Amino acid sequence: MARLRLAVIGVGHLGKEHARILAGLPEVELIGVADVDATRAKTVAGRCGTRAFYSYWPLLNLVDAAVIAAPTVHHHVIAADFLRRGIPLLVEKPLAATLENAEQLVEIAKRQSTILQVGHIERFNSAFEELQRRPVQPKFVDVERLGPFTGRSLDIGVVFDLMIHDLDLLLALVQAPVQRVDAVGAALFGGHEDVVNARLTFANGCVANVTASRASSRPVRRMCIWAPEGYAKINFAERRLTLVQPTAEYRQQGLKVYRPGVADTCSTGHLESLELDCNGGDQLTRELQHFVQCVQTGTRPRISGEDGRNAIALATQILQVVQAHQWEGHAAGPIGPTQLPSPLGRLFDPGQVVQAA
Known about the structure:
The strands form 2 sheets. Strands 8-9-10-7-11-12-13-14 form an 8-stranded mixed beta sheet. It is globular, with a radius of gyration of 23 Å. It has helices at about 15-25, 40-50, 75-85, 100-110, 125-130, 160-175, 250-255, 265-270, 285-295, 305-325, and strands at about 5-10, 30-35, 50-55, 65-70, 90, 115-120, 140-145, 180-185, 195-200, 205-215, 220-225, 230-235, 240-245, 270-275. The protein starts with a strand and ends in a 33-residue tail after the last helix. By secondary structure, the protein is an alpha/beta fold. The model has no long low-confidence stretch (mean pLDDT about 90).
């Protein structure tokens, strides 16, 4: 089989990693990388042994498929040009900056019968994959995705930047539409929200509490799931899955098995736990290998354009609620993430010792 001719459009923080990995795949020929920053394009092209382009236009006639890793605001225009020519794409998350633009890309891909995969990389996290292989009916989910401020992705807020990962995961796990959204968020560094908490109620009764922040002193990427089958916790950073379930005896007899006076009988004697190290390799490499395989075989990707659009639709709902939040309970007061109430004073004096939270 001939090598697949591929290009990467946008080789910034993440795009350069796409290029590095693709250049090392034996079934791929990295035709070139494109970036409006000429120095960056040359640097990445040199490292990957390929050509540098300063516009994506020449690549439209040179490739079999492409990866779009440009800033989100440019996804729609660039992706539409490739899709109209029937060129399969992997578009980094989020698929587009607006729901309308995401819908248009899905429609173009459908009309051209071409592959559109969205880079929701946590679907390839081996701990999440392991959870999906098990019989779990999520009924309450608590998710945190926190990180320090990096200065990247300032064209979007934390909902489209970080939370959208977990919205996609929730939609894949729960398999039911969202009926109610409650949310609140605040902008700390600029014009977009940087901290958001959302409470989602699904049509099947599942409730999810989702928090995303790019103003945290330490990174956290975890999901906790309570289900009739038991409890599951995913540490996405470490690719670890913790499972807890009642013993067969407890399922049959309930509290009858509890022995008064015996310390921790319920927590230690009647619950089984399993710790799984699911280090199945780098998920970005596996995501790209999956994309290449889908292009070669014509297979529908694990995260389709429709999946990417659905995550954006839910993110848009959350943002609408965040933007309408009345901080003082009435419309005359501050509203939305950028109009916070005036502070009453300082939490601590400048001379006090500051310790990381």
